[in-house]
Amino acid sequence: MLLTAPPEDKALAARQLAADWRAGLLAWPGAAGEGPSNGVEVPDRPARPEKPDLLPPRAMKRRGPGSLAGRVALLHALAHIELNAIDLACDLLARFPDDEGAPLPRAFANDWVRVADEEGKHFLMLQARLGELGAAYGDLPAHDGLWQAAEATAHDLAARLAIVPLVHEARGLDVTPQTVAALTRAGDEKSAQILDVIYQDEIGHVAAGVRWFEAAASRRKVLPKVLFDSLVETHHTGTLKGPFNEDARAQAGFAQLMAGT
């Protein structure tokens, strides 16, 4: 997946990876105690198509979903996030078969293969919906913020988990219900239904982040909340913005993590 540039091919490859994994056709390096030196070179950046053009996050125009152009812009931005998310899950699997010298169990791979599979599903759903609205992924510019976060945390599994699933994906839980409601008010029930599917899956993705972040904190002999706060201060640009979706975050186990237990 990381070396596959065409977006649809990348998404389909993620789905095939999951099918092959469930069929027992793939091995997990962590189970054999092998680390990143197992001969697999992980690229600093995944292969990407020529389009969309990548702009700084602040250069992105904001449009509401009340107009067709606004809905296309919203779905395009979400498709870009999901394409990044495929690469993020696969990079996690390739880059971190161990942590702090300890091999990671097969359960770790089970979680992130599932995440890659679902992110591939999300991209394909959004791409199809864009087509129904007369657009395509790559028609509009996008920003590179998610992969910049991946590059900044490539050295440390705990940092990657803190910034990607526990900051960025958790923020998606905060804002998606309002976006679904706005699409419904605009009469775009089909797009709203797609976002609701993504929302439900993302609760599980954040839960996987919580689960493996807590394990990483245990290996470092640090309370999860203390480690999370330290890593966010070091690696996250900006502040953590509310309001927070406390119900969805609680479903994902975030409340317990942040309680410092």
Automatic annotation (TrEMBL):
It comes from the Bacteria. Residues 30-63 are annotated as: Disordered. Residues 42-53 have a biased composition (Basic and acidic residues). InterPro entries: DUF455 (IPR007402), Ferritin-like_SF (IPR009078), UCP012318 (IPR011197). CDD domains: Ferritin_like. It holds the Pfam family DUF455. This is DUF455 family protein.
